[in-house]
Design brief:
The complex is a heterodimer. Chain A is mostly helical. Chain A contains eight helices and no strands. The longest helix of chain A is centred in the first third of the chain and has 36 residues. The N and C termini of chain A lie far apart (63 Å). The model of chain B has no long low-confidence stretch (mean pLDDT 91). Chain B has one domain: MetI-like (MetI-like fold, Orthogonal Bundle). The chains are: A mainly alpha, B mainly alpha. Chain B: Keywords: Cell membrane, Membrane, Transmembrane, Transmembrane helix, Transport. Chain B: It holds the Pfam family BPD_transp_1.
Chain lengths: 217, 223
């Protein structure tokens, strides 16, 4: 039987690039989707509002794990072969879109109505109003919670382990099965996630406090 | 898309699905009650405990909030038995959920306590109310109102993330789905139905929480 040594540690650490890759993919895709969701949720078009509301309810009201299962097991059934990488990527992007969309909707709605009306009075069209007046202001409010949400995205990628995608958690399981030293193995796994997430949490907290201080002045 | 959906096998297993649903609800409620106990103790330690205790609680909160629930679950399920403590998947799942919720709820409760303006507490004391009366009549209800939305949505998040405990084959709803899947091979149908059950649970609980808010906490803030 193998014991937990440096090569085992390295195996888990190297899997971190898949965790990071998956996180980046989910975040970039989820940011694009989230912007769409936020714009649809705040639009004056009833249909866009209804569709985006349903999307958010489904993805916030069901477990991420089941969304992953549905895509991983469902896509082949529909005649579309997906590997765990693609399935995990799609599930995480859709899930992140729903959550970031809701966070950003709140930020857009936090901009005083008067700003919108003023832009309208200046004769700006919808796209210009959004792009030049509302979104730049909403962006400043949105930054701290968005950085904070990145932590949730990174933690969410661990679920890809369950469909057999070898990121940090799955690498830990593999090493654990070979060494039977779960205490060491899962402590190392937890510490790798902690090293990825904690700086982001601290940054989000600091940005939040700076913003609160700026508002209090 | 020419897929022939067959839901018969899924619906034929409704007693199993019902049992799994019940276990998911039961796990989430039990974990929430116990986790709130942990959180209240930690919130006290963080706001008025001695320094070493405060550091300990801070380390606990940061560690739990910055690692995935799945890893916490594996830690409790695999690592503790290696130390000689043998227990079931169900017990490990419950403990992981309690520990996880405890960390999130501590911060929520602390924020609730800190949301009460100091002046109101001082005013109560100046009116010769006892400390416990100040807590009961001045602090408790507005604090409860302030944290209620965050706490209830935390409950729903916990219930949804409890699907993860199926990874150690605890007997929750998702575990039932995984078992059914391996028996009937109707994976797509099963996961659609089970996702639907979770969605119904999430909507039902958030409706219930809103109703409770309207009935019990919907009074104007006195600020």
């Amino acid at each position: 039987m193998r014991t937990f040594g440096f090569p085992e540690f390295l195996f888990i650490l190297e899997a971190a690039r898949w965790t990071i890759g998956l996180s980046l993919m989910a975040f970039v895709g989820g940011a694009l989707g989230g912007l769409l969701v936020a714009l649809a949720r705040t639009s004056e078009n009833g249909l866009a509002r209804a569709v985006s509301t349903a999307f958010v309810q489904v993805f916030q009201g069901t477990p991420l794990l089941l969304q992953l299962f549905l895509i991983f097991f469902g896509a082949p059934v529909l005649g579309w072969d997906v590997n765990p990488w693609v399935a995990a990527g799609i599930a995480l992007i859709l899930n992140t879109s729903a959550f970031l969309g809701e966070i950003w909707r709140g930020c857009i709605q936090a901009i005083p109505r008067g700003q919108w009306e003023a832009a309208e009075a200046l004769g700006l069209r919808y796209a210009a109003r959004m792009r030049d007046v509302i979104l730049p202001q909403a962006f400043k409010i949105a930054l701290p919670p968005t950085v904070g949400y990145l932590v949730q995205v990174i933690k969410g990628t661990s679920l890809a382990a369950i469909i057999g995608f070898t990121e940090v958690t799955r690498a830990g399981q593999i090493i654990n099965n070979a060494t039977f030293q779960p205490l060491v193995v899962f402590s190392v796994v937890a510490l790798i996630y902690f090293a990825l997430c904690w700086p982001l949490s601290l940054l989000a907290g600091r940005m939040e406090r700076r913003r609160a201080a700026a508002l209090a002045r | 898309m020419n897929y022939d959906f067959q839901f018969d096998a899924v619906f034929a297993a409704w007693p199993l699905l019902l049992r799994g649903t019940w276990i998911t609800i039961q796990l989430s409620l039990t974990a929430t009650v116990l986790g709130l106990g942990v959180a209240i103790a930690c919130a006290w330690a963080k706001t008025s405990g001695p320094a070493p205790l405060r550091w300990g609680v801070n380390a606990y909160i940061e560690l739990i909030r910055n690692t995935p629930f799945l890893v916490q679950l594996f830690f409790f399920f695999f690592a503790l038995p290696a130390l000689g403590l043998r227990w079931s998947a169900h017990a490990a799942a419950l403990v992981a959920m309690v520990v996880n919720l405890g960390a999130y709820a501590t911060e929520i409760i602390r924020a609730g306590i800190e949301s009460i303006p100091r002046g109101q507490i001082e005013a109560g004391l100046a009116l010769n109310l006892k400390r416990h009366q100040v807590f009961r009549f001045i602090v408790l209800k507005p604090a409860l109102k302030a944290i209620y939305p965050a706490l209830t949505s935390q409950f729903i998040l916990l219930m949804l993330s409890s699907a993860v405990v199926s990874a150690i084959s605890a007997d929750d709803l998702t575990s039932v789905a995984a078992n059914l899947q391996s028996q009937t091979f109707r994976s797509f149908e099963i996961y659609i139905v089970v996702a639907g059950i979770y969605l119904a649970l999430a909507l039902a609980f958030s409706g219930l929480f809103r109703l409770v808010y309207r009935l019990a906490l919907n009074y104007p803030d006195r600020r």
